[in-house]
């Protein structure tokens, strides 16, 4: 073996070793959480790193009956509705910024992207007062509006970056055929943006599913609390019953993990093409 080949083999071995170590670092805490969700308190405190003696599904049933079902329903409702609203409004805005000639197009683009600099924590006090005055405090509408409004700038930025290099000839051909702006956007431009649309959907789902600050401040009832706040409440009420808490954490993490693995190909493709442009 030549020196170059030897160095290449060493480099590949180092790269694979690093990736394997990274997989262990990421996967082991998840596996540990899942296994501890099947244990009893005695097993958990006796040896938290051992395998469970038997799979105790009762912990998952207990977590479900102690409020996780309500928290999961609230999270799904808020996440799905805010994702649809955010992606649709952002895609429509990106289409207008890249396909429609407006007198103040650059200014509008700057104002939308300027929203990226607004920190949510800074706006908490006026937002609380505003939502209380509007009667939206402690409702699903509060989280839906907040999650949508604060994610539109970033989502618009990604979709706009992807749309910029899409061929304009397709739009012009559709216009010649008599298609309206709405028809062109909905049937031609939006399907061409499928990779970045899927990427933005995943990014928003991760944000809405794990968001804690707004969910803690703007909700107080069990019916409207999402999983991050609900799990905190579960830990405070049943802090000594750790297997049930771990079971609730597994239920909270599983939907997002499944979504990411099911669409990771589009997620990586959409981000690489969108940001690369």
Short structural description:
The protein has 277 residues and is mainly α. Helix content is 78%, strand content 0%.
Features:
mainly alpha
Structural description of this entry:
By secondary structure, the chain is mainly alpha-helical. It is built from twelve helices and no strands. The model has no long low-confidence stretch (mean pLDDT 83).
Alpha-beta classification: mainly alpha
Query: Strand-and-helix sequence, N→C?
Result: HHHHHHHHHHHH
What's the gyration radius in Å? 24 Å
How confident overall, as mean pLDDT? 83
* C-alpha geometry: globular
| Percentage of residues in helical conformation | over 70%
Task: Give the helix/strand layout.
Layout: H1 3-36, H2 41-46, H3 58-99, H4 105-114, H5 124-134, H6 140-163, H7 168-176, H8 181-192, H9 194-210, H10 213-218, H11 227-237, H12 242-276
Helix pairs in contact: 1-12, 3-6, 3-9, 3-11, 3-12, 6-9, 6-12, 7-8, 9-12, 11-12
